[in-house]
Q: What sequence folds into this?
DNA sequence: ACATGTGAACTGCTTCACAGCG
DNA sequence: CGCTGTGAAGCAGTTCACATGT
């Protein structure tokens, strides 16, 4: 199958959010123009994005909210539960472990890991902090789909090596480093300092 | 001046990080090939990125580490301090307030805001939690460059309206909504649920 | 000899515009 | 008639390849 652009997948997430809101407000159909307005794009872009995966609309009418919702859920692989572990029980790690935007979308945080023996064994919101050195053993019994990396920059690449060795195939990286992974492992990075630098650049370049 | 692509600015951040590391390891020059290897790109891309802003290298030699470091810092607007406020003293907000990757890069967190009167007045790491309803008054006396938005989705657009009214020109958004802002306000969004959905998509599409 | 800087070619995402169908 | 679905055109970002300077 043809490779889908990252930007397209991101927009599908945005459309899905709007559809869920529309459903709650009792709407039964939406047009590509409405989806576009709320997604910050154009109606042609919306239709093109969807066309990669099929024909979901009715000409002259628009899209059925529940049908399109289900289709996008399917496309994004949200028709199942994903097991997630968080690596690093520091400030960001614990904030993420307690964040409740994950569960309603099928991302189930099953464990938090840390190397600090002082933290191991404690519980956050019912989730145990486990010893990271045991991660390979744990994953052998309970399969993990996604690892969220919330460790300091220094330890990040090493943690990734161990996760990849243990069979993890997807990583969401919060450490401010460019991770190196085998081609069969998917990585997304969120780098807050880098985002602030982007804003700094914009503010500066506008002043010129 | 010509509009610079977002992707270029992001890569400059990556180069800068590598340069700072190189400096610490005592290197005095780097080639575009080295920068490329660590930034996950190609040497031609590195040279093209830099060429938008000037000629920083020496043919046959490469780039002087301290000179290029300073040049990129300048380009990104990091030659000064930026005042940052965090809006929302929940889990993510407090984690961000205490995150110490900001200060070394010139981003100074001067206040945390919340609407919950129970939180107002408390201190986190020496930073006071202030009443968000006073934000306009506060900004009149102390100028703010960047607001980091860490509030629930419901309140995000309203918080943005008040920040924009108070004169804020740059927002880093952690709320899972598509913000609407005037064209002179810069926004970057970090949406963790959306990143997980991207990974979910990749895992699913590979399985097919 | 070596590595930069840059026009030119290329690739791929976005926008246009209209045929097709309810 | 309205809105989708989609080839074709347009545009932007990346890669190529080489002239240029040290």
A:
């Amino acid at each position: 199958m043809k490779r889908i652009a990252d930007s397209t997948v991101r927009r599908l997430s945005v459309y899905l959010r709007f559809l869920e809101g529309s459903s709650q407000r009792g709407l039964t159909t939406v047009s590509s123009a409405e989806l576009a307005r709320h997604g910050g794009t154009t109606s042609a872009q919306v239709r093109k994005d969807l066309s990669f995966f099929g024909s979901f609309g009715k000409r002259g009418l628009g899209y059925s909210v529940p049908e399109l919702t289900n289709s996008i859920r399917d496309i994004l692989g949200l028709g199942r539960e994903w097991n997630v572990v968080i690596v690093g029980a520091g400030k960001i790690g614990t904030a993420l472990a307690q964040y409740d935007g994950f569960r309603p979308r099928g991302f189930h945080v099953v464990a938090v890991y840390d190397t600090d023996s002082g933290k191991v064994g404690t519980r956050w919101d019912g989730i145990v902090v486990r010893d990271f050195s045991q991660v390979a053993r744990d994953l052998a019994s309970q399969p993990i789909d996604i690892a969220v990396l919330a460790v300091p920059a220094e330890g990040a690449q090493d943690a990734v090596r161990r996760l990849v060795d243990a069979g993890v195939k997807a990583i969401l990286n919060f450490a401010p480093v460019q991770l190196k992974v085998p081609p069969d492992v998917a990585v997304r990075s969120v780098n807050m300092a880098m985002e602030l630098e982007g804003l700094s650049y914009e503010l500066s370049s506008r002043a010129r």
User: Anything to note?
Assistant: Chain A touches chain B through 61 residues (CB under 8 Å). The two ends of chain A are 46 Å apart (CA to CA). Residues 31-33, 43, 47-48, 50-51, 55-63 of chain A lie near DNA strand D (CB under 10 Å from a C1').
